[in-house]
Amino acid sequence: xxxETKTVGYNADRYLCRVQRAPMGEWVVAYGRxxxxxxxxxxxxxxxxxxxxxxxxxxxxxAVANTGRTAIADGLDPDDHTSKLLTLDPxxxxxxxxxxxxxxxxxxxxxxxxxxxxxxxxxxxxLYAFNIDNSRRQLRQELQHATARQIEWVDVGEDTxxxxxxxxxxxxxxxxxxx
Length: 179
Fold this sequence. Notes:
This protein is mainly β. Helix content is 0%, strand content 61%. The protein contains no helices and 16 strands. It has strands at 5-10, 13-21, 27-34, 40-46, 49-56, 59-64, 70-77, 82-88, 94-100, 104-109, 115-120, 126-131, 136-142, 148-155, 164-170, 176-178. Strands 1-2-3-4-5 form a 5-stranded antiparallel beta sheet, with no helix packed on it. A 4-stranded antiparallel beta sheet has the order 6-7-8-9, with no helix packed on it. The radius of gyration is 16 Å and the shape is globular. The mean pLDDT is 86.
């Protein structure tokens, strides 16, 4: 299940990781820090087979699409309030990178792996969405509600040509603050 903790062995090292699954469950991503050193890594699995692993600075959020494409919020330096959003293809190749002058609060990737979205903490307080394939920003929305930072994809039905919406809510509720 999403959020479970798992120990991953890699190159004679052990990593204490959190686990995220793709919506259809075929892809699994584990991310965490080494038990022996301070190194952090992301591990991408296809049905329990390791497809790629990539070192990162400080992974704070990870999401995986049904295609295996993975979004990673990398905390970089929490004292400087800087972070990096990157997406990896299933083979570990970086397909998108963007830097923020704020810490990322939440990160999601569309089920088809084409769009990634994040919310940021102060001083930015913003929701961003990017097209991964062309690296273009699709959305920038300042968030007026101070505690609304959790985001999720919402299917708006067949009459909208398969488009999705992003729901922004508080951590402890599913009631949307924005849709």
